[in-house]
Automatic annotation (TrEMBL):
InterPro entries: Aldo-Keto_reductase, NAD(P)_OxRdtase_dom_sf, NADP_OxRdtase_dom. Residues 16-308 form the NADP-dependent oxidoreductase domain. It comes from Mesorhizobium hungaricum. GO terms for molecular function: oxidoreductase activity. This is Aldo/keto reductase.
Length: 333
């Protein structure tokens, strides 16, 4: 497994990380046995970055990761945790809470669920509009000083917020959606991260399975599946987006690759400071994603991929209107 360095402080992780959300939430029921087997397979393959959130299954995801780490010896594994999203017993979203006291309380619960002495990367899931980012980062900095957190990250924030946060404490990485269908980071945010020496962990690299090469209109989704409400999976938008997938398939097949492998390899090719998070929750999908590491894209390959799926060609926004309005990263570069 090749490695990449996140941030100027030198946090070394595997070139691909595993996003674990789907094992507990957002995409309908997941098989617990297969989830644990996939986590173990990822560790065996050399993946050293696991990403979760304390609100994924209301703690279920953290406990699942804790169990996987406790039952399988492995080398250094970095666990990235997002916090702040508030949910009710019915799973509905209630907003965000990133007040200092909430930050420290959430960290205490995450440490217990994960079964670790320190969280490797701790980050607010979104910008809390009611709390200055300086206060939130200051609270995490206290946790760093006390040994409960090792590094501070950010998620889905714009350049101004990144700069304000970095002025309080070094930031190791920004977690943000980045794929062939979601390239907003290229309009300023990526430049800001590189100026400040901040790495990027890219989620949604397959646009929630849309550009995995495995999605078609016959797929059925449970009511709990996020994609039921995602604009890109609805009506004419889906038809237009699947046309892009078929164009990508032609490029992939000409290079003896799958669509997913080409899409992941494209993100990998965008900079050594970018670590894609693959959301595999089955071992076969994990194996396919790892195959992206076998491809070194040439300039001609990248041009062909971007011609098949040009910037801005995606039909529909990446979240619904209400969620898009909550993203600091969408307000300004």
């Amino acid at each position: 497994m090749r490695e990449r360095t996140l941030g100027k402080n030198g946090l070394v992780v595997s070139s691909l990380g595993l996003g674990c959300m789907g094992m507990s939430d957002m995409y309908g029921p997941a098989d617990r046995t297969e989830s644990l087997a996939t986590l173990h397979a990822a560790l065996d393959a050399g993946i050293t970055l696991l990403d979760t959130g304390d609100f994924y299954g209301m703690g279920h995801n953290e406990m699942l990761i804790g169990e996987a780490l406790a039952t399988r010896s492995a080398g250094p594994v970095r666990v990235s945790v997002k916090f702040g999203a508030q949910r009710g017993p019915d799973g509905n979203w209630l907003g965000y809470d990133a007040r200092p006291q909430a930050v420290k309380t959430a960290a205490a619960y995450s440490l217990k669920r994960l079964g670790v002495e320190a969280i490797d990367i701790y980050r607010p899931a979104r910008l809390d509009p009611n709390v200055p980012i300086e206060e939130t980062i200051g609270a995490i900095a206290d946790l760093v000083k006390d040994g409960y957190v090792k590094h501070i990250g950010l998620s889905e924030v714009g350049s101004e917020t990144i700069r304000r946060a970095a002025a309080v404490h070094p930031i190791v990485d920004l977690q943000i959606e980045y794929s062939l269908l979601s390239r907003g980071i290229e309009d300023g945010i990526l430049d800001t991260c590189r100026e400040l020496g901040i790495g990027v962990t890219a989620y949604g690299v397959l646009s929630r399975g849309l550009i995995s090469g495995h999605w078609d209109k016959t797929k059925t989704m449970t009511g709990a599946d996020f994609r039921n409400r995602s604009p890109r999976f609805q009506g004419d938008n889906l038809d237009r987006n699947l046309v892009l997938v078929e164009a990508l398939r032609q490029v992939a097949e000409s290079r003896n690759a799958s669509v997913a492998q080409i899409a992941i390899a494209w993100v990998l090719a965008k900079g050594d400071d970018i670590v894609p998070l693959i959301g595999a929750r089955r071992r076969d999908r994990l194996t396919e994603a790892l195959g992206a590491l076998d491809f070194t894209l040439t300039a001609a390959d990248i041009a062909a991929i971007e011609q098949a799926a040009p910037k801005g060609a995606a039909a529909g926004s990446r979240y619904n209107e209400l969620q898009m309005a909550s993203l600091d990263s969408e307000r300004a570069a």
